Each structure stands twice: as structure tokens, then as C-alpha cells.
Amino acid sequence: MIDVQQVGLTIGPFEYPMHWRNIILYHLGIGFGASDLDYVYERAQGGLKVCPSYAVIPVFQPFFEILDRLKIDLSTVLHGEQAIRLHRPLPSSGKLMSTVKVAGIYDKKKAALVVLETETKDEQGDVVNETRMSLFCRGLGGWGGDSGPKAEAVHVPRDKAPDFEIAYKTSPDQAAIYRLSGDVNPLHIDPQAAKAAGFPKPILHGLCTFGFATRAILAGACAGDVGRFKGFQVRFADVVYPGETITTRGWSVGNGRYVIEAATERAVVLSHALAEVG
């Protein structure tokens, strides 16, 4: 049984060095290529850009640490929702310091819903970004606890065409590359682990799909300016298999907000999603 008394537990700060090799490796993992020099060349004119979705990478260490503190087996975890908020563009050098907090533990009967919040600061102590993730931990529910707040519903305006629609094809090797940025769950590389989890083959990391959608928002709503990207929240609705195409659509709903939906050839994979741009 999960220890609900751990709600409020905060650990850190954890130091993370920003290095161009790690940044470029992440960018390759979310589909940037040789034609995207600003993201894959450390001597790019104007400096190396950092995709806003990189905000999830410096918090991997505290994320795994807190799962260990909560005695949660990674193989039971399904990523339900993810949100990031950027206060300024991520730097391409220097050090970042991150803390992680257990914001909530809720009883979903067959699973526990664990909500984690992180805060990342730069060397000057200024907040760079915050993240929030919701994790379904199978087999840990049923203690009769609070089921948690109702999730915000985000409805796609089907009565009008999207303001942008951008498709990126993933590589058959996409998960093999992305995992080198820190998420080494065997579900994404080992066929036997994937079958044990109920999938016919390894699936793409949800945060890799999140990164592909972030790229589309940058191109479709921010004119490529990472400084305009302020936030992004999603619900993971279905899996992506490496080699599939991810099509991201965005509808402007005013005040710099876009309703976002991402889908493969088979299904909607990111739903109830909102992006905020400046």
C-alpha cells in the first residue's frame, strides 16, 4: 500500500549541468535533424536553442529518487498527464537546480494517482520552469482514500479548421535514441518488457511524443521563437509506436492560448491539451 503520509514531501535541490551534447542528443530524440542547425549544432549562429520540452529532462533524477522513496515499482507506472511552464528560455550552458514535491496521492481504486510538481532554478536562483506530472501506479489503489479533483476538460473546437497542422514522422529508432536522455524504462526498448505490459512491441516514450508536439507548437504558433513558448499541458490518450507519424493540430482560443490535439494514423495520442504562447 502506498504511503499517503508522504504528500507534501519535497526533496532536492538536485544539480543538473546543461551541456550541449546532452541538449543535442535530446533534440535528436524528438526528431530534430541536420536541417535544424539551431537545435543540433553547438556553434549555431545566434547560439544553440533549447526546445522548451527539455524542461522535463533535469528533473529525471529527482523523479526516480522520489519514486524510490514512495516504494513505487517503475513497471507499474503509467504516465497520465504532463504540464510544463516556462518563465524564461532554458539556458544552453551552466547549472540548473531542481526540487520535486509530492503534491497529491489519490485513490483510483485499481491504481494510485500520484501527482508530482517540480521547480527548476538557474545559478542565480531565478525560476526557469515548473513541471507537473500525474502518474497512475497500477495495483496501489483501493484504500478508500480521496479520488482527487476532477481533471479540467479541454474541448477541441471541431466547428472550425485548426490554425496550424504539422506532421512529423518518427523514426523506427526514435525510442532507442530518446531513452539516452534519461528515461531508460525497458518498456520502450525491450520487446519482452513491452509484451509483459500488454503491448505488441516497444512503445515511444510519452514525453517523446510531448516533445514532438512541442516542436509543432514552436513552428505553428511561435514562429520558431522559444522565448514565446510559455506553457503546455497534455493528457496521454494513447501510445505511439516508433515509425508512426505524429500530426499536431492547434486551434487559437484567444489570449495566446491554443487547444492542442496530436494523433497518429491510428488514434488521438495527446488530448485535453492546452498551449500558451506570448
Structural overview:
This protein has helices at 20-29, 37-40, 60-69, 174-178, 191-196, 206-221, and strands spanning 10-17, 77-86, 95-107, 111-121, 127-138, 164-169, 229-236, 245-254, 257-263, 268-277. It has 278 residues and is of the alpha+beta class. The protein folds into 2 domains: 1-18 and 58-143, Thiol Ester Dehydrase, Chain A (Roll); 151-278, Hotdog Thioesterase (Thiol Ester Dehydrase, Chain A, Roll), CATH 3.10.129.10. Strand 9 (257-263) and strand 10 form a beta hairpin. The chain is globular, with a radius of gyration of 18 Å. 39% of the residues are buried. The model has no long low-confidence stretch (mean pLDDT 96).
CATH fold assignment of the largest domain: Thiol Ester Dehydrase, Chain A
Spatial extent as radius of gyration: 18 Å
Helix count equals: 6
Portion in beta strands: 25-35%
For the termini, the CA-CA separation is 44 Å
Number of domains: 2
Biggest β-sheet: strands ordered side by side in the sheet: 1-3-4-5-2-7-10-9-8-6
- What is the CATH level 1 assignment of the largest domain? Alpha Beta
- Spell out the CATH superfamily of the largest domain: Hotdog Thioesterase
Overall mean pLDDT = 96
> Structural class of the secondary elements?
alpha+beta
CATH arch. level architecture of the largest domain: Roll
Order of helices and strands: EHHHEEEEEHHHEEEE
Stretches where pLDDT falls below 50 for ≥5 residues?
Answer: none
Largest sheet: 10 strands, antiparallel
Oligomer: single chain
What is the 3D form? globular
The total strand number stands at 10
Q: Could you estimate the helical fraction of the residues in percent?
A: 10-25%
Domain MaoC-like: 159-258
GO biological process, one term: fatty acid beta-oxidation
InterPro entries: HotDog_dom_sf, MaoC-like_dom, MFE-2_N
Pfam family, one: MaoC_dehydratas
